[in-house]
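Ops channel
N.P.: pipeline sanity check, posting one input/output pair.
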């Protein structure tokens, strides 16, 4: 247990991080981190001249970053440096640990604060589309690097015989595809297969169509506005739920529809936020982040739909497996995990 003084220090740290998150976002959008990456020590004057920014603002920003240990400071020549080890987190948009898009998600929640207060009082839900637009772009940017790094080479590769099937030509559905990040990654990797991205949010599908237009996979990918219990049951070889099943009002119903839409013996791939099975297993910074997102986005999204089970973003393997088991799936197995995800394969009998 904390003493009062220790707890006050924890809250000060949280408030500091909240305010500094704005500074981090500014550093990203103005290219400050990018300009410092692998550039060695720079003074505030050198950095501001490099980017054409006002030196006094840049200096104050740099000092905030040093206080937060994002940068290092040399008092002898009053220079600042971005450690190489921080570049994958702050600069490299293809890195699976590029975390700055999470700040856009956080910004969307501040925009939605009044709406969230109301649902706490009424118990009602909030549809996905009712949130601030920063949520949609932030979620895509946050998830995309992980999909690029792990989806094909690790997660699908861990599924029994699925990679070979996709290489030869298969039929795949990506449910709740959003802006299509996961669909496009798979479709580019397996050009002989046909991919369908389904989502009930019209604006997301509109964005997915823009994204696919410049990709090689445009010839083997289709995006369609449709919900998780209405898409065609045409005998898919693989159906994927990427970070979305817990958002659904009726995850069992969605899983039952997927079972019906799969060929006999075919597989479902379920990617969900990493979590233990119990609250006491989830006392850590990543779960704290996910519980916050779940309170503000995932739980109200589910409650806005029919049934409204509200699994939440920290459902854990046991609860997710029970959903799939109730839907009729067999051979339900955790095949991979990262600090941010749990990955489960299940099969239609």
């Amino acid at each position: 247990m904390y003493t009062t003084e220790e707890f006050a220090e924890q809250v000060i740290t949280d408030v500091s991080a909240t305010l500094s998150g704005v500074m981090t976002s500014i550093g990203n959008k103005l290219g400050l981190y990018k300009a410092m990456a692998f550039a060695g020590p720079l003074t505030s004057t050198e950095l501001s001249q490099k980017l054409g920014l006002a030196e006094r603002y840049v200096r104050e920003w740099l000092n905030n970053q040093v206080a937060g240990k994002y940068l290092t400071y040399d008092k002898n020549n009053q220079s600042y440096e971005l450690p190489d080890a921080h570049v994958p987190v702050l600069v490299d948009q293809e890195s699976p640990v590029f975390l700055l898009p999470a700040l856009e998600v956080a910004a969307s929640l501040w925009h939605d604060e009044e709406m969230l207060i109301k649902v706490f009082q009424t118990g009602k839900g909030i549809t996905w589309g009712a949130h601030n637009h920063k949520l949609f772009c932030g979620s895509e940017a946050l998830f995309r690097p992980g999909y690029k790094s792990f989806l094909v080479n690790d997660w699908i590769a861990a599924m029994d015989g699925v990679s070979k099937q996709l290489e030869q030509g298969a039929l795949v559905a990506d449910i709740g595809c959003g802006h299509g990040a996961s669909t496009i990654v798979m479709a580019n990797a397996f050009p002989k297969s046909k991919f369908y991205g389904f989502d009930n949010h019209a604006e997301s599908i509109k964005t997915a169509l823009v994204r696919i237009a410049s990709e090689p996979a445009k010839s083997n990918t289709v995006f369609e506005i449709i919900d998780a219990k209405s898409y065609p049951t045409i005998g898919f070889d693989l159906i994927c739920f990427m970070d979305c099943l817990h958002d659904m009002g009726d995850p069992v119903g969605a899983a039952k529809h997927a079972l019906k839409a799969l060929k006999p013996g075919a597989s479902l791939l379920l990617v969900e936020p990493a979590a233990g099975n119990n609250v006491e297993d989830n006392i850590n910074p990543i779960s704290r982040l996910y519980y916050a997102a779940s309170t503000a986005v995932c739980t109200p999204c589910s409650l806005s739909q029919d049934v409204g089970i509200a699994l939440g973003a920290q459902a854990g393997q046991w609860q997710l497996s029970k959903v799939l088991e109730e839907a009729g799936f067999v051979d339900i197995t955790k095949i991979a995990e990262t600090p941010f995800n749990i990955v489960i394969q299940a099969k239609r009998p």
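N.P.: looks fine end to end. Residues 143 and 250 are 23 Å apart (CA to CA).
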